[in-house]
Amino acid sequence: MEFLEIPERTSGKRTYGLTSVIDLGTPIEELRNILNDFSHIIDIAKIGIGTAYITPNFQNKVNLYKKHNIKVYCGGTFFEKCYYQNKIPEYATYLHKLGIEWIEVSSGTLDIPIEERLNLIHLLKKDFHVIAEVGSKDASKEMTISEWKEEIQLLLDAGCKYVITEGRDSGTSGIYEKNGKIKSCLISELLEDIDSQKIIFEAPTPKHQMYFINEIGPNVNLGNVKMNDVLVLEAQRCGLRCETFYLEDQICKLPL
Fold first, then answer.
1. Tally of domains within the chain
2. Do the Cβ atoms of 6 and 248 come closer than 8 Å?
């Protein structure tokens, strides 16, 4: 029985309000139990770093995600390893054989020029839904706000379905300072010119997630969510945690 007034959430086959989990080696039986209970609040699964290449019975894991209508793709580090070794055609064949329809193009470890990434997207979007990532995993590499905006817009214009803002699974680079503090000025500037429904903000901790929910709303796209935090995140989105307690009041006061 539902009786509380809570923020309205997107549902079903969502195009925004996405929860993208990071799978860093979840055993398949454990995953099966998690998805039996929580698949309705998981939209995307990123098989983190390069673990897909060495995961036992990886096909079974891909099939399990797809059975629950969850989009699955391999993390950008795997893509960059293939790029570094000139194996992108082999990588595409590998994904096709697994039935994976999504691919990430990133430059988090390698410094792949934006022009080269755009060329790759042009080729890959013929066969895949492309997600691109902006930002470096090296916290010492800073991008200006204008560079962030320009890259994100170029990637969207090139045909990417979504653009991810780098944050790592630790929340210590990209849109975060080394100490984990969110670069709030950067986020505010991005939201001025770019449709937030097309951005997936990497937010690996509840603290990071709460910031984006309060800043953008319950239907913000969030990535690098830990598997065990999925239900807690949904509670936050619904105003059922102290830090998002008054969320529905804030939404009601927004101008039409």
1. 1
2. yes
Q: Give the rounded distance of the alpha carbon of 99 from its chain centre.
A: 20
Percent of the chain with pLDDT over 70: 97
Q: Is the dihedral of CA 153, 135, 76, 40 positive or negative?
A: negative
pTM: 0.95
Name the helix (H) or strand (E) containing 202: strand 199-202
Q: What is the dihedral of CA 85, 89, 94, 96, to 10 degrees?
A: 160
Rounded-to-integer distance, Cα 190 and Cα 202, Å: 14
Question: Which pLDDT value is given to residue 252?
Answer: 53
Domain range for 23: 19-252
User: Considering the domain boundaries, does residue 140 fall inside one?
Assistant: yes
Residue 2, in any domain of the structure: no
- The CATH number that applies at residue 200 is 3.20.20.70
User: CB count, 10 Å around CB of 253?
Assistant: 7
Query: 139 Cβ partners below 8 Å, 6+ apart?
Result: 172, 173, 176, 177, 178
Phi/psi for 35 (5° steps) reads: -70, -30
